[in-house]
């Protein structure tokens, strides 16, 4: 018997005092000799964030919000899994398991859960929302042995939905959440009716190398930029996660710099990360890495599964929403090679990699439009 346990966050005040002490004793590097972010997180931007973190940021606000939604843990395959779970009052609500990625967390979904669960429009589709923390992320247990890749996580999420009593449900995800959700689709468990991705997964084929299609050209250009300039984090985390883990677990500034760079490059902004997300939103997410010290354990998912990202095909009903500032945009033709039963596709005019976080209203609309086709 593996019971569902209620989980209440109450971080000891000593941990917050210790963080403040570390933020008071930073040894800063010199300013970057370039005017842009091409060498990484800009010193001025990071100093601004850290000053806010030290003086104005209120962790207890975030803690109260998570507790208000409803937090739980349960043991699956020998690992304690943390998850948010909020049920709708609507009898016709569809159960939904929604999965975050890196450098995100369940914080990405704080702006969409209430509307998904209790729609402001009584005629809109409602959901019972389940948002697990990936193993080694947030307040899920850190695996002590290898083998917790995306396929195993997908099986754990199927078990979680069954354990919660949901005999029919849908799944959604972006980033690692897209990989896990794709793996759920490949498993095609009896209860899963459809999946939706906000990071459409697709790879170019030989026929795309000489294509003149503007969407293909844009995707190929983005892939080239990612490989040459934007993938250093993934190369390090997929080959030497333990090495970078020391900095991410020991130094709050290293952790903030590591994450803020991706907030800047992966959001739909006009030159500042704060165009897309507030400092409170970013720090809430950073705290879900700092407080449980998951910098190394989260990075290990890259070591486990980065080479398998997006492999295989999905035959159950699937949908995808393409946001314009996605880091690896995939044209519909590429996506259809993976999602062979694509019942919903939409290209949006704004938004980036963190769709639910950046554009909560559009994200909710996309989920309803997709899943209405299969429910």
UniProtKB/TrEMBL annotation:
<protein>
    <submittedName>
        <fullName>Epoxide hydrolase</fullName>
    </submittedName>
</protein>
<dbReference type="GO" id="GO:0016787">
    <property type="term" value="F:hydrolase activity"/>
</dbReference>
<dbReference type="InterPro" id="IPR016292">
    <property type="entry name" value="Epoxide_hydrolase"/>
</dbReference>
<keyword id="KW-0058">Aromatic hydrocarbons catabolism</keyword>
<dbReference type="InterPro" id="IPR029058">
    <property type="entry name" value="AB_hydrolase_fold"/>
</dbReference>
<dbReference type="Pfam" id="PF06441">
    <property type="entry name" value="EHN"/>
</dbReference>
<keyword id="KW-0378">Hydrolase</keyword>
<dbReference type="InterPro" id="IPR000639">
    <property type="entry name" value="Epox_hydrolase-like"/>
</dbReference>
<comment type="similarity">
    <text>Belongs to the peptidase S33 family.</text>
</comment>
<feature type="domain" description="Epoxide hydrolase N-terminal">
    <location>
        <begin position="4"/>
        <end position="109"/>
    </location>
</feature>
<dbReference type="InterPro" id="IPR010497">
    <property type="entry name" value="Epoxide_hydro_N"/>
</dbReference>
């Amino acid at each position: 018997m593996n019971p569902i346990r209620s989980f209440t966050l109450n971080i000891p005040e000593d941990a917050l005092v210790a963080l403040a002490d570390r933020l008071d004793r930073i040894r800063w590097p010199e300013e970057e000799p370039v005017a842009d972010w091409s060498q990484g997180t800009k010193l001025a931007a990071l100093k601004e964030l850290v000053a806010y973190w030290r003086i104005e940021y209120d962790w207890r606000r975030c803690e109260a919000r998570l507790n208000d939604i409803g937090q739980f843990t349960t043991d699956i395959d020998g690992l304690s899994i943390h998850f948010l779970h909020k049920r709708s009052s609507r009898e016709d609500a569809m159960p939904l398991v929604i999965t975050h990625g890196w450098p995100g967390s369940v914080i990405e979904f704080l702006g969409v859960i209430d509307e998904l669960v209790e729609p402001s429009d009584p005629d809109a589709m409602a959901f019972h929302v389940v948002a697990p923390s990936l193993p080694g992320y947030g307040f899920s247990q850190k695996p002590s042995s290898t083998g917790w890749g995306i396929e195993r996580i997908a099986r754990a999420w199927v078990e979680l939905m069954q354990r919660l009593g949901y005999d029919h449900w849908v799944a959604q995800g972006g980033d690692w959440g897209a990989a896990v959700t794709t793996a759920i689709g490949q498993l095609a468990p009896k209860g899963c009716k459809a999946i939706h991705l906000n990071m459409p997964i697709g790879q170019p084929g030989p026929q795309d190398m000489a294509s003149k299609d503007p969407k293909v050209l844009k995707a190929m250009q983005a892939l080239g930029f990612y490989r040459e300039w934007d993938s250093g984090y993934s190369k390090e985390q997929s080959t030497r996660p333990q090495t970078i883990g020391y900095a991410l677990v020991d130094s709050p500034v290293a952790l903030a710099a590591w994450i803020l760079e991706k907030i800047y490059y992966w959001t739909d902004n006009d030159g500042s990360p704060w165009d897309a997300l507030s400092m409170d939103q970013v720090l809430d997410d950073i705290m879900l890495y700092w407080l449980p010290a998951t910098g190394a354990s989260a990075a290990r998912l890259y070591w486990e599964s980065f080479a398998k990202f997006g492999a295989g095909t999905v035959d159950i009903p699937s949908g995808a929403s393409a946001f314009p500032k996605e880091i690896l945009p995939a044209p519909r033709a590429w996506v259809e090679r993976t999602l062979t039963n694509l019942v919903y596709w939409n290209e949006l005019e704004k938004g980036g990699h963190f769709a639910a976080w950046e554009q909560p209203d559009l994200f909710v609309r996309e989920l309803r439009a997709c899943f209405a086709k299969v429910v």
